[in-house]
Amino acid sequence: MRGNLDYAQKISYRSHKHTVFLRAVRLYCESVDELLRDLQSVAPRSLGLRNLLGYLDTYVRSGAFGQLSKETAELREALSKLSYGTLFRGDKVTVRKYAFEPDYTATILERFAKFRETEIEAPAPRKPKDEFSLNHIEEAILEFVSRLFPEQFRRLDDYVARHGGFIDEAIARFDREIGFYVAYLDYIEPLKRTGLPFCHPAVSVSSKETEVENSFDLALAGKLVLEKGTVVRNGFRLSGGERLLVVSGPNQGGKTTFARMFGQLHFLAGLGCPVPGTAARLFLPDRIFTHFEREENITNLRGKLEDELVRLHESCKIMTPDSVIVLNEIFNSTSLDDQVFLSTRVLQQFLAADAIGVCVTFIDGLSTLSEKTVSMVSTVDPDDPARRTFEIVRKPADGLAYALSLAQKRGVTYEQLRKRVQP
């Protein structure tokens, strides 16, 4: 239906445009009827789909829809019975009413029947394409046909004028939104086949008690599954007065991926989608604020630090206790002292608002900023600190793994130095 309506907008010949519009209305009526029958056959359990089923049933039974379906079928039937002939002489085409000439196909087959050497089964006639794509000659012929049958095409013109807004608003919105859910289910299906878990979360608009088990970032999982890689799963919890997860640890340890996962979980839960993980209990926020590094935009005449301050200031002004915050290594463009000062002020604003969220940082001190903060650390292999495990665990931040991996990389660990200074 959408394709035909879009195509109709590009057609200049009126008769062609209107016949395409008629086809779009027919497809609409058939699709609504079919959707109602299919929903009735599966007896959906969700409140949203049950409400949709009730709405569709009332809509289809309404006089307006019944009249639209009846009028559409009658008009198509009337137009389909029109017969005409075309005469081609050189580059001229004459269109006239059908004069009941014989079918010359049968005559030709009869004349050449005696030349057949074997009896073969005639190929089945090709099914005509159900489309309205015409070239300019065909469009002109259709315009001449409309002059031969003015009454039927006046009915068509009147039909189009009266039914321009034939699409029901609620059905159009469902059609637009259900596409996301179908696409999401298609996206996660190959992930589920590899054994990655998904669950329907328990959600609340009042309790901020949060707990997630064995979750993962959807975008990274999709990439790793294609590459036959291993998807590392993580979990977290916020209980009592805890509000902010402060994630620290070595670079390239999965901290940003964890922050994306945190935001995805709350966004998908708010849409009613199954979320990655074996179990989840989540708070439904009014808004989700995300702050990741951006490239400088020369059009706003602001430097990187100023631009980040402006964006964070806007978030601080409009966030509420029901908001979710996702911060990823903010203020990296300034000095360490300024970064500590600014990050502390921003986190104090978020904590004062009582919003929940996650903050990825290499400043360990932020994890002990308040009793509302929870320290989580990206871990490394104890036997090889340079190797990341990509597991994020709940424990106090100490910075040792990061310092040790840097020292090894630069060749200044105790053992490396001893070997270099031996006589």
TrEMBL record:
Domain of life: Bacteria
Cleaved signal peptide residues: none
InterPro entries tied to this protein: DNA_mismatch_repair_MutS_C, MutS, P-loop_NTPase
Example GO molecular function: ATP-dependent DNA damage sensor activity
UniProt cross-references to Pfam families, sorted A to Z: MutS_V
Keyword DNA-binding on entry: yes
Biological process annotations from GO: mismatch repair
Any one cellular-component term (Gene Ontology): cytosol
SUPFAM superfamilies per the UniProt record, alphabetical: P-loop containing nucleoside triphosphate hydrolases
Annotated ranges, domain DNA mismatch repair proteins mutS family: 242-422
SMART domains: MUTSac
Keywords recorded for this protein, A-Z: ATP-binding, DNA-binding, Nucleotide-binding
Xref: PANTHER family: DNA MISMATCH REPAIR PROTEIN MSH1, MITOCHONDRIAL, DNA MISMATCH REPAIR PROTEIN MUTS FAMILY MEMBER
Protein name, per record: DNA mismatch repair protein MutS
Organism for this UniProt entry: Ancylobacter dichloromethanicus
